Amino acid sequence: MTTAVLISLTTSVLIVISVLLFPRINLRKISFDTYWIVALGGALTLIIMGRLNLSEINKSLLANTAVNPIKILTLFLSMTILSIYLDEVGFFRYLANLALKKAETKQFSFFISLYLVISFLTVFTSNDIIILTFTPFICCLARRANVNPIPYLVSEFVAANTWSMMLVIGNPTNIYLATMYQINFIDYFKTMLFPTVLAGLTSFIILALTFRKELKKPFVKHYEASTIKNKFLLANGLIHLGLCTIVLSVSSFLKIEMWFVSLIFAISLIITTGCYQLIMRDNTKILYPTLKRTPWNLVPFVISMFIIVLSLNKHGATALINKMLGTDYLVFKYGFAAFFSANLINNIPMSVLFAEVVRPLNGIPLKQAVFSAIAGSNIGAYFTPIGALAGLMWMSILKKEKIEFSFFTFIKKHFIVSVITMSMALIGILIMVR
Q: pTM of the prediction?
């Protein structure tokens, strides 16, 4: 067990170091993210040292079960394609500008509008997509209106990583943990609706109080007219995302796995768009940018982390963690353990690890532990930048936009809101899962 634990810990530390110090490797015109290369290196080291053999890995990766990581990745990537497609059409920027147009000249009015728009979109798309889309928009708006962008940037990040808990499709960590324990779309939503609303309202109140002085200052609205140039592409994207969400909600009753539903809609979106552009001779660049922006790097990363956790599980490390956490106060123990662990090894590896840690539990204790870990994987994303890949992407965008926001500033701005919001989310889960 010692060897497996040491290699796993070393890999996790190196992943954190890589994303902080050298996030990308540039080889001429080709650029690589380093985090998945480090994870892959850790997995290969375990295999080479005999901590896990290829037949064991092959059995797990090809297993016809809900815990198959290939199925989970298919679900996440398919939903991501649907979201990125709408972003490429200009839908998210259009809604952001609409919120700005409707807001008054008071900052607080726009603060509320932006928080509501981001929260709503995050529920039905993905927190990562929202952060990548809205962060440059907020930076640009703040410069034009000559206001401090920090209140809006912090609220955007908090909203995106709080409301992403509501539906299983909101975060890859939701998908992984829920699918691992066969929690269907409706059961997930029924359980997480109240905790998410409670956490969302709590986070908004804290943010409003935190930035109240800054938001009292007036600002001049520099509204930028934004229109959707191709209505068919917009309708095509919205119809596919809407229908996919509906079918996912009833997939358990239809006895169709969620990964298959999302894959069919993603393929359908690509085919219908291709046929439309071919028939109408439309040259809008939509499919290539969408597929290019899809985070394919998550495939080797998640599979590598899955292999690492397989090794830890084989050698008894996950069972030891389960024993350390005990069986009392499960909601708060597993919730905050996931919350802090995400900020040591990132929320995706944490979710892969905790999926095995909770395995000895069953019944109500199992549900409490799983949903608490899900809450920790989402809200833990805004405790430190390491908590999620979204945080690292967000910090990278701010650096490009020349907005000073250090690692320690991140913690300072998010510490209170993350801890209190996490506590309220866990209270909500405790009420719903008894």
A: 0.80
Where along the chain do its domains lie? 2-432
> How crowded is the C-beta side of 106, counted as CA atoms within 13 Å?
7
338-389 tens-digit pLDDT = 999 888 877 888 888 898 899 999 999 999 999 999 999 999 999 988 888 7
d(CA 71, CA 35): 22
The mean pLDDT value for 74-98 works out to 84
Identify the pLDDT of residue 352: 83
> Hey, is 26 helix, strand or coil?
strand
- Residue pLDDT, tens place only, 424-434: 999 999 999 98
Q: Rounded to whole angstroms, how far apart are CA atoms 434 and 429?
A: 9
The candidate with the shortest Cα–Cα distance to 399, out of 385, 387, 413, is: 385
Asked whether the beta carbons of 276 and 89 are under 8 A apart, the reply is no
Cα–Cα distance for residue pair 93/85, rounded to 1 Å: 13
Q: What is the DSSP letter of 34?
A: S
Q: Is the dihedral angle over the CA atoms 100, 152, 116, 169 positive or is it negative?
A: positive
Give dist(CA 216, CA 106) in Å, integer: 7
Tokens of 371: 């949903």
What's the token pair of residue 137?
Answer: 């928009």
Closest CA to 356 of 305, 309, 299: 309
